[in-house]
Design brief:
Blueprint (H helix, E strand, L loop, with lengths): L2 E3 L2 E9 L3 E8 L5 E7 L1 H6 L1 H14 L10 E7 L2 E7 L6 H8 L4 H20 L12 E3 L5 E3 L2 H9 L20 H5 L6 H17 L12 H7 L5 H4 L5 H11 L10 H14 L1
Helix pairs in contact: 2-5, 4-7, 4-11, 10-11
Amino acid sequence: MDVVLGEWSIGEELGRGGMGVVHAATRRDDGTPGVVKFMRPDLAEKEPQAAAYFDREMRAGTALRHPHLVHATAVGEADGIPFIVMELCAGGSLADLVAERGPLTCERALPMFAGLLDGLAYAHAAGFVHRDIKPRNILLTADGTAKIADFGLAKAFEAAGWSGLTRTGALLGTPSFMPREQVLNYKYARPGVDVWAMAATLYHALTGSTPRDFTPGRDPWLTVCTTRPVPVAERDAGVPAAVARVLDRALDDADGLPHSSADELRAELQEATHDD
């Protein structure tokens, strides 16, 4: 790309998803590395008003300041396309880490998730519900600090009118890390959906698997609605029993969301660590 955007030089594309396109960036005055995420141009073109909502909510999102949330440094608009500049997390994603090195030990994972749940509680208190917590949205800094990415984007897409189905009929979010209630009632997602997704992300970090089994060729959303999570012990008998019990309870969403707050799950995991 190699263009200039205000004080930032925009470089190569690093990735893209359902909401945006991510490019490498460098601050022109001091060479500080960062990343810039642009709203997908096709989404901005379909409804110009949505881009305005996106920009407004992204500006609100820059107010979030927590050591376990990816820091947004600036927002703006270029040729009608909203963008957000974020800190660079050079350690990649939790998804990459597990794929490359295998499941994490409890000794490594539990302190990491204690920080993430603290960041999640902070964001919920500020009025933000993420709706797409998953291993790929947990980023690692060069020193290994884990941070939740894209909180502002989730809020922005809700305000822009994509809180349920997109124009192409694709539900936003990732079924492997989404509770049953979120699929059934996406528009009114509560903080508890993020807590469930964080528990599912910890499950993946410890076992290398998703809580539910997804059969190839079967509608994944139907799987979420009609099947129950596999107990942790059936995935990895090495996970301490007390920790497994907490995760199994946190993911049992047959009768609703087990936890309404991130602090509640954080406390239970801490107690389970002491029990073991």
